[in-house]
Amino acid sequence: MNTQPTVSEHPSDFVLDRALADELDAAERGRLVAHLAQCDACRERHDGMSADHASFLSHAPSFQAHAELVKELAQRSHVAGMEGKRAGGQRTSRRTAWLALSSACAAAASLWLVLAKPTTLVDPQTRTKGSAQLSFFIKHGAHVTRGRSGSEVYPSDVLRFTYSSPEAVHLAIFGRDAHGATLYFPTQGASAALPAGVDVPLDFGVELDAQPGPEAIYGVFCSQPFDAQALRLRLQAADAPSAPEACSLRVLQLQKRVGSQP
Amino acid sequence: MTLLGADFDELYRKHAPGAFRRARRLLGNDADAHEVVHDLFVSLLESPGQFAGRSELTAFVYRAVTHACLNRLRNHRTRLRLLQRHGASTPGSQTTHGTHPEQLATLLSVLERMPESLASVAVYYYVDGLTHAEIAPLLGCSERHVGNLVARVNGWSNEEQSA
After folding, report:
1. Are A155 and A178 in contact (CB under 8 A)?
2. Where does the pLDDT of residue A83 fall: very low under 50, low under 70, confident under 90, or very high at 90 and above?
């Protein structure tokens, strides 16, 4: 595709994208280099796009995480079903080993997932850029998408969580709906000690039940171990979690919906 | 070139940043742009045969991102959410990619109603700033036909404004 402008013409973003992807041939690259050498504006555009690329790759989830997730999902049907423990007796959402999802899992809910505002019970100073983050993927049928604010989820959808942290961290993840609070991760006792990493998948999934209504997912990140079960009881008794001091909190608000995806 | 046996991580590193930049420019926010990029590369991983090696991957990614974004803009609920986000921005302020929120809102409303064959041209020509020569291989047609399509975009827009 020879769409490269002459030396005197300003290159489009398409040309610069092709250059950044190493798709220009020698003649095209020569013309681009010659133009950039004499055009400050285009050189700034090129440098800006190059910096944006680097920034994206340093902050965005790695494709390796996506690839591993898809690979794991593909293996799902070959593994025997194994349901995880439920900490909240009234709940029907199920914590389950990620690689052991039964295709016969029935009860599920439809949820809305919304990244919520920080609660007032946690010091906002702990929510600095680069601090620990909780993310999730949604598996709907055979399709996997990254969850985000406003994502729609439906019965039998499965959520899988990943975390990112610039340093080793202690984490617990809770769910709370009208029936009460559930400790999703770890299943009992103290918080889980995790190494630093970016978009590190956690080895469990939550299959959504059929109970409509709002649900919140809380991820509590602390620098020191904490009693996750005690925190679940506090969450059970409160409208909003009270995270341990100097911990940070990530909240996903879910609104369960009834029915299947349109 | 085909994607069979390709190093997907390298593929992602080369093309995901540009795909994200374009998706964010069209959709106006990071969350939707990340979803478009994620869906695109997972789709490529699951069905590498969809890229038949007819052109460079940059061209393939341009087409795929354009198609995915236009589909999202045509989704009524997605469009309302995007418009609400843009509307909630401070008047006169600029997004991180330099486009005024009110301009984006206008663009979204126009692209949502425009026939898909014209909407793709409008994106390439008015949003990406590509030349007719660059658009032609993306659409698989001649430069002359691109010129005709751009003229039809203008005519359609004029009719919309006068309606």
Report:
1. no
2. very low
- Sort out which chain A residues have CB atoms less than 8 A from B11's CB and list them: 63
Confidence of residue A80 (pLDDT cuts 50, 70, 90): very low
Q: Does A77 touch chain B (CB under 8 A)?
A: no
**Three-state DSSP state, A183:** strand
* Predicted TM-score (pTM) of this structure: 0.54
What ipTM, to 2 d.p.? 0.80
Which residues does B77 contact at the CB level (< 8 Å), separation at least 6? none
3-state secondary structure of A216: strand
A30 touches chain B (CB under 8 A): no
Contact A62 B12 (CB under 8 A): yes
Instruction: Say if B56 is an interface residue toward chain A (CB within 8 Å).
Output: yes
Chain B, 13-32: which have a CB under 8 Å from a chain A CB? 13-18, 20-22, 31-32
DSSP-assigned beta bridge partners for residue A96? A83, A205
Pair of tokens at residue A260: 């299947």
Which residues touch A250 (CB under 8 Å, ≥6 apart)? A132, A133, A134, A218, A219, A221
Q: Number of residue pairs across A and B with CB atoms under 8 Å? A: 95
Q: Are B22 and B70 in contact (CB under 8 A)?
A: no
